[in-house]
Specification:
Distance between the termini of chain B: 59 Å
Strand content of chain B: 25-35%
Number of domains of chain A: 1
Order of helices and strands of chain B: EHEEEEEEEEEEHEHHHEEHEEEEHEHH
Largest interface: A-B, 43 and 48 residues
CATH superfamily of the largest domain in chain B: Naphthalene 1,2-dioxygenase Alpha Subunit, Chain A, domain 1
Number of strands of chain A: 1
Helix content of chain B: 25-40%
Number of helices of chain B: 9
Mean pLDDT of chain B: 93
Shape of chain B: globular
Distance between the termini of chain A: 34 Å
Oligomer: heterodimer
Low-confidence stretches of chain A: none
CATH topology of the largest domain in chain B: Naphthalene 1,2-dioxygenase Alpha Subunit, Chain A, domain 1
Radius of gyration of chain B: 23 Å
Helix content of chain A: 40-55%
CATH class of the largest domain in chain B: Alpha Beta
Number of domains of chain B: 2
Number of helices of chain A: 5
Number of strands of chain B: 19
Shape of chain A: globular
Mean pLDDT of chain A: 95
Strand order of the largest sheet of chain B: 12-18-17-16-15-14-13
Largest sheet of chain B: 7 strands, antiparallel
Low-confidence stretches of chain B: none
Radius of gyration of chain A: 14 Å
Amino acid sequence: MQSARSLPAGFESLEPFAAEWVLPDAVARMAKRQGSAYAEIRGFYDALLPLGERALDYLRGFQLGSLPPEAERLLKLMLSLAEIAPAVEWYKDPKVYDGFEIGRIRYLRQIPDTSAQR
Amino acid sequence: MDLAKVPVPPIGLTKRYPELGTGPVSTAIYHDPDTYKKEMEAIFKRCWYMIGRVDLIPDPGDFFVYELPTFRQSLLVCRDKEGKVNGFHNVCTHRGNVVEHRASGKCNGVFMCRFHGWAYDLKGNLARLRDEEGFFDVDKSRLGLRPVALEIWQGFIFVSPVDEPDQSLDDYLGEQGRDLVGYPWDLCTQSYHFQSEINCNWKLLVDSPAEVYHIPILHPNSAAPTMMASGNPNGRLLDVQIKGPHRTNSHYSVQAEPNPVQKLAYRNAAAQNVVCETLSYELPKGLNATRSQHWSVDLVVFFPGLELTVSAGAYTAHQVWPLGPNRSVYEQRCFVRRAQNAAERFGQENTMVEYRDVVMEDLSTLERIQRALDTGQIKQFYFHDHELALRHQHKVVTDIIAEYDRQPAGSAAG
């Protein structure tokens, strides 16, 4: 149910990735990485990386806790980029080197994605 | 930086500590059930444990609940109206249910047990005893929550699993703790926290980050490029400082060319997990003890199971909790600075993901080692000069067990 304007202007090319990679929190991002084929991860990485610097320039103008919806979605795409970066840049595989199952780790606390921090 | 001129750290750490010897060591303490029982009595019950930072509960009424894995005690930590941090056993004094069932939150002034409704204030006093008339000669003033021994060091909340610890937190942290005062611990108010149960002895988990001899082989694409850039192909340490039962490794590093996403995180989103060339504060003497310009992080080990990976701008706490001779919980808290804007939230995520993934690269190996220990397929470990921290741990544990064995049976049990 995304509108055409779900991401800020200038980031329209990322719209096809929003449904899959805008996720509620770090645990969901971790699961998404592990549940995705490497080619899919690589496709997302290749689409987002060239816009990464521009995305951060845009996000620098916003405070956590008061993000408009389109900025929030762009931030969440960038957080997914952080999650999948080792899969591409270190492992060429969703799993870590030597294959420890990420399902064996359990988060007790996460930094909220978009809340104000103090 | 002219990489050709960067010196490779030399061999020669172990000879500074002749009492540790240089020979192979017996692996028995890594799997023997009898040794494990003695470790519980002589080491773990005497120790203090870090369970979070005061930043988790900044305001009066804020609380969190934490279960000590080794001891299976549920603890309730809260900030009272005077701003003091209090810790209690999270157990209702009526019939033993937990008083607070949520993991964290804000309390409106009383914690109410959801079994029969007994309620306690932020100082642990029994504030309400429902249908008090039906009880027999109860003294409400004696039915408050049982306090837990709690002390705070540099914003870290430590607890003891026994009511009357025989050493204070300051005594436990010792010289190594004093040498860390002055680092801006309180700037890193944001944290990720996870646990994982690993099928290995607690000492293998402590050993894992305590030697970097394995980095070029087990972390070829993640940690190795940074640590090995510049002609340190064997990933040697800058220094090891031994302070009583504790120890600190100084890590050598020269920043290699970062990967593309790292570049975004470091340069455009203030991520702090990199070599830092300018500091806004003076490092305390316990960090980068040799004052090397090639310093990246220190691994500060508080015996037995707390390890802090400290860089100039962020830190990660590793806590190892034994569950049995060949089972443990590994716990990681990654602490980062507050994001000044939405872009910096990306830098925080990069730091967390990198620390998590690098540590996960170690864990399968530890379970394979444990299998070889349990089956008796390896009887001795041979430690490299720069695996000194492991040799030191072996000596500390062996000496404590020997001392425990010398005590008369009655006092040892006490």
